[in-house]
Amino acid sequence: MQLQIAPSILAADFLELGKDIDALNKNADIIHFDVMDGTFVPNISFGFPVLEAVSRMAKIPMDAHFMVVNPEKWVDRCAKAGVSMMSFHLEAAGRKTRSILRDIRSHGMKAGLVINPDVPVEKLYQYIGAADYFLVMSVFAGFGGQKFIYESLDRIYCLKERILSKGNDAKVEVDGGVNEGNIKALADAGVDIAVAGSSVFRSGDPAAAIASLRNAL
Ligand code: DX5
Ligand code: ZN
Q: Residue 30 and residue 104: Cα distance in Å, rounded?
């Protein structure tokens, strides 16, 4: 399947959010939401009021990336808000990981498991079969606009190989510093879904920026 583009609205102009969602509805595949709690990551973004408002307007699937402690608290509300994909960090969930993945699925959403760049990718392998997608951070979670960490390519390649060798169809998502210069290498390494914040919204023309990302493939 063709790589899907998931713009992160963290980089959008919040005073013009409706306009940006309209552009994403027409040009993107998925809308990516970064929910931060100021505890798991040293930053706070936005929460359910924004998610619920966007949901009323979204025509494409919404992917919520929870950078929070105790992610299990938000599964039910996320499903009720109309989110189709919910992910959380392995570092935040620890031993609760498997049961949270199960809970997300039982709420009818796709379950995603995320790791920061300093977590060995092998730690994800035991969850192949239990998750619908794996999100490999290519920057440290917490802020948009950071520089892509090149070692991520190798991690993605290894993960994808392992998923395929187990005959599984989990998707691999990448998040952080994705741009026209690295998206082809990411697709070649096995990425199915590319999150892009700054590279989509910085120019002020998300439609054109998404087209450039697709053209770079
Ligand atoms: C970082 C977030 C990312 C971020 C990506 O914590 O998870 O989704 O918005 O932004 P860029 O594409 O600017 O790195
Ligand atoms: Zn994200």
A: 18
∠ CA(151), CA(157), CA(159), 5° rounding?
105
Structure confidence by residue, pLDDT tens digits, 55-76: 999 999 999 999 999 999 999 9
Q: Of all protein residues, whose CA lies closest to atom 12 belonging to ligand 1?
A: 197
Give the closest residue to 178 by CA, choosing from 190, 193, 165, 164.
193
170: left (phi over 0), alpha (psi -120 to 50) or beta: beta
Token pair, residue 23, equals 């552009």
Ligand 2 centroid, distance to 9 Cα (angstroms): 9
Active-site residue, from 34, 63, 103, 192: 34
- Give the mean pLDDT of 147-172: 98
Is residue 87 classed exposed, middle or buried when 0-12, 13-18 and 19+ CB atoms within 10 A define those classes? buried
> What is the rounded CA–CA span in Å between residue 43 and residue 77?
22
DSSP string, 64-127: EEEESS-GGGGHHHHHHTT-SEEEEEHHHHGGGHHHHHHHHHHTTSEEEEEE-TTS-GGGGGGG
Q: What is the pTM (predicted TM-score) of this model?
A: 0.98
